[in-house]
Design brief:
- It is a multi-pass membrane protein.
- One of its GO terms (biological process) is dopamine transport.
- GO terms for molecular function: monoamine transmembrane transporter activity; neurotransmitter transmembrane transporter activity; quaternary ammonium group transmembrane transporter activity.
- Residues 74-515 form the Major facilitator superfamily (MFS) profile domain.
- The protein is an all-alpha fold.
- The chain has three domains: 1-44 and 140-324, Up-down Bundle (Growth Hormone, Chain: A), CATH 1.20.1250; 50-121, no CATH class; 332-530, Growth Hormone, Chain: A.
- Helices cover 66% and strands 2% of the residues.
- The chain is built from 22 helices and four strands.
- It has helices spanning 4-11, 16-37, 39-42, 56-63, 67-81, 135-138, 147-174, 176-195, 200-227, 236-257, 261-269, 271-274, 286-291, 295-308, 332-336, 339-365, 373-395, 401-420, 426-453, 457-488, 492-507, 523-529; strands at residues 49-51, 90-92, 119-121, 126-128.
- The strands form two sheets. The protein has a two-stranded antiparallel sheet.
- Helix 16 (339-365) packs antiparallel against helix 21 and helix 19 (426-453) packs antiparallel against helix 20.
- The longest helix is centred in the last third of the chain and has 32 residues, at 457-488.
């Protein structure tokens, strides 16, 4: 009986059928990038806000003040009495009642001198000129509550982490396309609920669930794409990353046009419902069917692929070699039981962690270095496009391992140099920082490809999901590490990023080269890769 790769070669390794499925599933990269980076725009800092004095709302209604007039009456005496206070996190320790004059409420402060005005910390009742522009103004994530914005991104990554374990396992047990479709439905429903969340608790719960299902869509679509093409066409795993980058470039345009965070949330969530139409055009992975002892269904799909590609399978292809490796419910022990699998797993887990922490850290750093957020975000996405092109040029010529190592080391050196460059040469500092962003993007994209090539079919989805869960752990840590260390010294996070990246670059040199090698079907195949 012929092997699956032999049948695939005769049916067409990257014909019209695979190109159609590939293009359709690539759209998932766009929507996943929306979810992955949307906090930058959902959580924009409100441009102008202040703490409202108790009783000010009633007084405003009685006096017919504009918001600007109320702000002047509230903040002006605070600034006169304490020039270091902006009125955002502190207010005058008074209560305005019916005795306060509409024309001159400042007389209410009596004979207190400006230097002796009593202040109180603000814990609620903030006023925003644009109250629904972001989740910050919607849920009062300012001052002592500012850390909760970091938590909202951490909880999304926690959802990614949970999704990697649960849905990665489910995709290996119940099928790639089933879990993909259920995940798309879940992302859409949870995204709509997030947009209309009545409070921050509901927002966080369904943002977590959106992360769970979002990870399911991304990982399963990636695995399906790599499993239906030949070994020489697995560059599609890199090309799909280009669509992720396109999503990053599109997102600032959506945020610029849509004035409210709810509108942005709906715009990035609703497209997921369209992916449910794939039920009729994207088949189950025939490789997965073979591992589940469903050779007849796999062969039927292969005949369909050949027909769409304008080819014809030989009559003797009445059966395909079924993986003889015993199929069981995958577990972490399966990934570390043998020497080569254990080494691959540990290095890949660290590679995912370092790449994600550095990548997300550099993306979020855009929000604290100033500039035009929409333009800077677009440019940061455009910078990633050459990364995919460089990978496509190098991986089939010199392999996976060397570009993987060099990109990490270059990213580390660039972060270190950027940290110590003076501010009076901004163009040079920006150039080096851009080089670092380009390099870590290359590393982040290569780890996807290498991870799928270093696990057998029976463990591939679970292995990719488990290793990439460290990516989500890096994403959980990234906002806290970035903002807490930047408060000490703005460039301190770059020093940490540098150490992590260089260490990763050295470790990946220990991985086996997979250039031009068929996807391993069994654990034994993986053990032979290093030979």
């Amino acid at each position: 009986m012929p092997s699956f790769d032999e049948v695939l070669k005769e049916a067409g390794e990257f014909g019209r059928f695979q190109k159609r499925v590939f293009f359709l599933l690539c759209q998932t990269g766009v929507t996943f990038s929306f979810l992955f980076t949307s906090v930058v725009f959902l959580g924009q800092a409100p441009g102008n806000y202040w703490c409202r004095i108790p009783g000010a709302a009633e007084l405003n209604e009685r006096c017919g003040w504009t918001l600007e007039e109320e702000r002047n009456f509230t903040v002006l005496p605070l600034r006169l009495g304490n020039r270091s206070s902006s009125g955002e996190c502190e207010r005058l320790d008074v209560v305005w009642d019916a005795s306060v004059s509409c024309t001159n409420p400042l007389t209410h402060y009596g004979n207190h001198s400006e230097d002796n005005l009593s202040l109180a910390a603000c814990h609620d009742h903030w006023v925003y000129k644009q109250p629904h522009s972001s989740i910050v103004s919607e849920y009062d994530l300012v001052c002592s509550n500012a850390w909760m914005l970091d938590l909202s991104q951490a909880i999304l990554n926690l959802g990614f982490l949970f999704g990697a374990f649960t849905l990665g396992y489910a995709a290996d047990r119940y099928g790639r396309i089933l879990i993909y479709l259920l995940s798309c439905l879940g992302v859409g429903i949870c995204g709509v609920i997030v947009a209309f969340a009545p409070n921050f608790t509901v927002f966080m719960i369904f943002r977590f669930l959106q992360g769970v299902f979002g990870k399911g869509t991304w990982m399963t679509c990636y695995v399906i794409v790599t499993e239906i093409v030949g070994s020489d066409q697995r560059f599609v795993g890199i090309v799909i990353q280009i669509f992720f980058t396109l999503g990053i470039m599109i997102l600032p345009g959506i945020a610029y046009v849509v004035p409210t965070w709810q509108g942005i949330q709906l715009a990035i969530s609703l497209p997921n419902f369209l992916f449910l139409l794939y039920y009729w055009v994207v088949p189950e992975s025939p490789r997965w069917l073979l591992t589940r002892k469903k050779g007849e269904k796999a062969l039927k799909i292969m005949h369909s692929i050949a027909k769409h590609n304008g080819k014809y399978l030989s009559p003797h292809y009445s059966e395909i070699t079924i993986n003889n490796e015993e199929v069981s419910n995958p577990s972490f022990l399966d990934l570390v039981r043998t020497p080569q699998m254990r080494k691959n797993t540990l290095i890949l887990m660290y590679g995912w962690f370092a790449s994600a922490l550095i990548y997300q850290g550099l993306v979020m750093r855009l929000g604290i270095v100033g500039g035009n957020l929409y333009l800077d975000f677009f440019i940061s996405g455009a910078v990633e496009l050459p990364a995919a092109l460089l990978i496509l040029v190098t991986i089939d010529r010199i392999g996976r391992r060397l570009p993987f190592a060099i990109s990490n080391i270059v990213a580390g050196v660039a972060c270190l140099v950027t940290a110590f460059l003076p501010e009076d040469i901004p163009w040079f500092k920006m150039t080096i920082a851009t080089l670092g962003r380009l390099a870590i993007t290359m590393a982040f994209e290569i780890v996807y490809l290498v991870n799928t090539e270093l696990y057998p079919t029976t463990l591939r989805n679970f292995g990719v999901s488990l290793c990439s869960s460290l990516c989500d752990l890096g994403g959980i840590i990234a906002p806290f590490l970035l903002f807490r260390l930047a408060a000490i010294w703005l460039e301190l996070p770059l020093i940490i990023f540098s150490i992590l990246a260089v260490a990763c670059g050295l470790l990946v040199l220990l991985l086996p080269e997979t250039k031009g090698i068929s996807l391993p079907e069994t654990v034994e195949d993986v053990e032979h890769l290093s030979r």
